[in-house]
Description:
The protein is an alpha+beta fold. It has 18 helices and 24 strands.
Amino acid sequence: MAKTVAGIDLGTQSMKVVIYDYEKKEIIEKASCPMDLISEADGTREQTTEWFDKGLEVCFGKLSAENKKTIEAIGVSGQQHGFVPLDKDGKALYNIKLWCDTSTTAECAYITKKAGGDAKVVKLLGNLMLPGFTAPKILWLKNNKPEAFAKLQYIMLPHDYLNWKLTGEYVMEYGDSSGTALFDSKNRCWSKKICDIIDPSLLGKLPKLIEAHEAAGKVSAAAAASYGIPEGIPVSAGGGDNMMGAVGTGTVADGFLTMSMGTSGTLYGYSDKPIADPANGLSGFCSSTGGWLPLLCTMNCTVATEFVRGLFQMDVKELDGEAAKAPCGSEGVLVVPFFNGERTPNLPNGRASITGMTAANTNRANIARASLESAVFAMRGGLDAFRKLGFQPKEIRLIGGGSKSPLWRQIAADIMNLPIRVPALDEAAALGGAVQALWCLKSQSGKCDIAALCAEHITLETSKSADPIPANVAAYDKAYAEYQKMVDTVAPLYK
């Protein structure tokens, strides 16, 4: 019988489950279920616990009974920062406000003022108070749904909710907790001051914190019956999608960066000491492997390319083909990709634009390529911040939809001036969940090194590598300077 672990990835657009054979080092089965999204003009982005419940049922329902019997441990990856509010009976009190919800700017301003300003917040948390984080969402519930807040008993992030559905245990690990804006990332503890600003009762309602290698609990009899999985197997601590993406790409040691080009864009690297530069968009998060994971996040990555693709009614292949006709820098055409507002820079009310156009350069090819370039330009600032803090990157592990495009991989290598490498197995977050589950399983019988485990199980697809081309690097240094100048010019309009 096969020896397997399972990884669950709860993303914004879908839930995925993979079964990973850790002896053969291959994913033997996977299943997915799409997720709906509630969107409003005020920045509201919400989902429901019913959709999460259905996702688990559909995904596990698609997997073979034979393979499910072989699962020895489960690890869960989930979209970061969201807020799942439950009452004492575990019933949802309101919709889940997601990481991309920007309707909480007023709450951010209130908490920041009460704390003594941005500098004080950074000192308390290692991060700024941003609309995407959990803390302002809790205050939003208190301000807008007081009857629901009065019944609030359990405060969870999306992956915590899945852990709870599987085990019945109410816990949180340090990676996801560091993205709540309720947590002192440097000293690895809840911030009483921030909690008290929101509500004096809040600190007492927060979950028990557990280490990354620990089990959140064991699969309950109810979950085993519902999903056809073995009862009593460990469910690992899990973590946010970026934390699990770090595991699934092997970014668990100094020097490696992971760049995710999905709906949002993220750039993050492992550090064995706290690193943060909130002023330049580098959040000071903890990893889900026992260290720290400084991270830059943008709200718009494939959002920009999807918009341009839809505008010109092209499929993905056509967009790439059109973009390939344009030179590096798109002859001066720039896309400022703030279609969903923006987190880095912190412009929740930001607006997108296509600029730099003249009679000579306005064509489909330049606009198409500029949309690809803009996503990477937005993350180049994060790379500069890493370097200023003494982080010496060796290479970038690229994941997400953008990693599937040879052109985009080369653009990324040229703009970042670093080798781009792509993991052989896709579904980095789900695979990361599976590998963390294996770490948890092995740790139960003695100490197990996560870096060694990743080195054994994470391989790279050499055919998808891209190395920087010096002439392109020089062209992009100039284009990036123009992009940055444009962002600095428009940013005051949206503050």
